[in-house]
Every structure is written in structure tokens, then in C-alpha cells.
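hey m, so remember when u said the C-alpha cells were messed up on ur end? i reran from scratch. heres the input so u can diff it against urs
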Amino acid sequence: MKKYFVYISTNPNKTVLYIGMSNNLARRMSEHRENRGNKKTFTGSYFCYNLIYYEEFNDVMHAIDREKQLKKWRREKKENLIKTINPDWNTINVPNE
């Protein structure tokens, strides 16, 4: 069964949040790390390579809908969501896929 992930990453100073969706979270986070400093990408420009939150889905449309929903939220609401599973905003390991 295919898995899809909606995730939030941040920069080392935890001042920028990036929300994305992927069917291969390990690969995607590796791409974010490799793009550090690359001004052509948002995550590269803002160094958003630290995974701090994710949700797993079996249906791609549910994942897309959730990503869109989270992107519309105000920062405070996103911060509260992150704190539900990661109160200190520690970088978390990518789950086994």
C-alpha cells in the first residue's frame, strides 16, 4: 500500500516553517538538506531541512487536502499542531516507509 506524508520542516533558528507533501519522506528531506543555500528553492533559501512534524496518509487526495488546509492556517495554529507531538521542536527522524 502506498503511503503519503504531509510534513512541516523548519530552519535551524526555527523562524521559518515549510509545509510539503511527499510519497517518499526520506528522499524529500534529503533533497531539502542537499538544497541548503540554493536560492532557487524556498527550502534552500530559508534552510528548511529540519523535520519537526508529519502525518501519514494512505490516500493521496486526503494528503493533498490536508497539506492545503495546513498551508492556510496562521502560524500560531501551526505551532500548536507541532507542539502536540513535538513540544520542543526537536528534529525528528524520518519514519520507515
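this time it looks ok to me. The chain has one domain: 4-85. if urs says something different then somethings off w ur setup not the seq
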